[in-house]
Fold this protein.
Amino acid sequence: MLIDSFTIIAQIINFLILIYLLKRFLFNRIIQIMDEREKQITDQMQDAKTAKETAQKELDEQQRIREELQEKWNEMLAQAKKDAQKKREELVKDARSKIDEEQKNWREAISKQRTAFFRDLRHLSCEQVCQMSRKVLADLADEKLENQLIENFLIQLGKLSKEEKDDFVRFIDKDERKIWVDSSFKLTCKKESGIRKILEKIIGDKVEINFKVSPKLICGIETRTEGKKISWNIENYLDGLEEQLKKAFTEFSFQESDVEKKEN
Amino acid sequence: MEISPDAIIIYQWNGIHLNATILFTWVVMLILILISWLATRNLTIGPKISRWQNFLEVIVGYIRQQVKEITQQNPDPFIPFLGTLFLFISVSNLLAIIPGYQAPTGSLSTTSALAICVFFAIPIFGIAKKGALAYFKHYLEPSIFMAPFNVIGDFSRTLALAVRLFGNVMSGSLIVAVLLIITPLFIPIVMQVLGLLIGQIQAYIFTVLATVYIASATRVENKPEQIEQKEGSKENE
């Protein structure tokens, strides 16, 4: 007998039990785990997609920030260059003005030194000229020339005004009543008496007259009291000449320095 | 030599007899349940999974894919029934390589039992899916006169299922037995290998036919848009 009813029933029951057990231990579990994995993969892919989008956004944002920074940096660089140029110009200008000032000061110092040098030179040359003249005249002077000078002196004494005479007399010491007459050469007695007469005439009284030889006068004569002096000699001429020369040089120096200042 | 393992009685008590078919069915059941239980104890969804889990996932995944392709519906409600059917027949035939083993599928009682299960599963799935009225209505199509033929068709295909599997498996083991007598060396091994291949093909054919019958019973006719919409909603869930 190929078919056995008991076996059929038993196999049906066996098969149903197998369905139940495999459903419980195999299919449900495996299907569940496969679905979960699929869901997990889908979620992960979704997460990855989201993360990618976020990263892209972040990247774009970073790119934008970097571009902004680059732009800002360029602007700052341009500004810095501009500032540096400005500063450089200022510094150059400042340096130039300082150099100009230094130059001006230097020129002024040079000018002062030159002026001082010329002033000293003039002064010295003036003195040298006078000294030379004095020496020449001293060499040339003699009694003859002095006599002429004395004659002239006596004439000048005679020509003195009353105020000048009073002024001269006023300075004679009342007690001692002394007058000094200096000459470069020894006077003759005739000359001395002549001089004495004229002086007594001027003073109007007797006085003690002391004659003395003084080589310093070079050539000429002078008479003096305690505080007043009347003279007629070459030294006087030379002194006058020196004064005139110094005055002339000083005026010339002032004019020259004015011209230099204008030139500067 | 026995044609059917039903004839090999191991234990008998009070009209209840334990034959080789039932015994080896239990063996197959035990193997299947043991492997399932051991492999699914520590399931993980991480990237690193055990080999057994991977193996079972491949098999279940393949069954799901096949059922989905044939039924054009969500395969999950059918998987326990169709998957068990395939695994039972497949393992029963595979173990034929062990000497002394008698494939339960080589028994017409077993194949009949499986065919009867399919016979009742078809209306159960159909009614669950479409409702009793809509399901029984298809017996009257295309006309009421075709109703007897539809009923006969149901029975005949169930019979065909049972006999096809029984015939193939039984013939396979019978040919090997006959060849052992004629040429004891080499040829029986080749036939044994062929028998294994035929056993797997028969498991596949039995399951696919059952799937097709269930699919035809549960299909909502001429409305493929609805199927797609339902599938779409199911996937969204």
Summary: Chain A has a mean pLDDT of 85.
